[in-house]
Amino acid sequence: MLARCLAVAAVAVLASAGPPSPIYRPCYLDDYKCISDHLAANSKCIPGRGQIPSQYEIPVFRFEIPYFNATYVDHNLITRNHDQCRVSEFYDNVRTLKTVLTVDCPWLNFESNRTLAQHMSFKEDVVLSFYINGSYPLIRLTTVFDKGNNFDLCSAFTFADLAGGLPIFHINPNDQRTAQWLSKDLTLLHIYEREHIFGKRNWLARSFISRTLCDFGCHH
User: Fold this and answer.
1) Which GO terms describe its cellular component (predicted)?
2) Which domains are assigned to the chain?
3) What are 111-123's pLDDT values in tens digits?
4) Fewest CB within 10 A of the end CB: N or C in the chain?
5) In terms of Cα–Cα distance, which of 206, 200, 188, 219 is closest to 114?
6) In 3D, which of 112, 131, 146, 141 has the Cα closest to residue 207?
7) Pairing relation of β-strands 70-80 and 157-161?
8) Residue 149 has what pLDDT?
């Protein structure tokens, strides 16, 4: 009688558990060698070249802010704390044949002289210039690799999330015209910053992954 009860209980447990999860986590999140080897085994990437610098400079970085009909160009863009990014999620989905890699970047800092060109119908662009230094509490970058695309990072989509909220920033206009134009109304800042980080997401994710984990040869 006891054996029969145990058998019934076992069947009930298995039934309630449902089908096995398709999520497979092959590595500990801090085991970058394991993650690197796993990516290399499924793609043509070359395992990590070393750590990304704590500070570096890019001569020109251009990004678009469609909501405000504007093009921005960062001149002499200094990036700090990119080396502090850490892998916060890594798994394979054996059902969809996709791999998810999430990188958390605390207190990324961007400093540059930024040019803004605001576009309008039937008119010339309004061109403005200002110095900006901004620190972001947490930027989260989630990249989805597709087995059907040979885990190609260079064409993979990366989602950027301002997980830590809006940045702490300092702005100085470079001329009187910009000083008069700059708004003190920050009610739409969250829209601007989402589009700003969206414009930088591929460079941030791909440069960190290629330097720290596995080099896919992307032109960021």
Assistant:
1) extracellular region
2) 23-215 (3.15.10)
3) 999 999 999 999 9
4) N
5) 200
6) 141
7) unpaired
8) 79
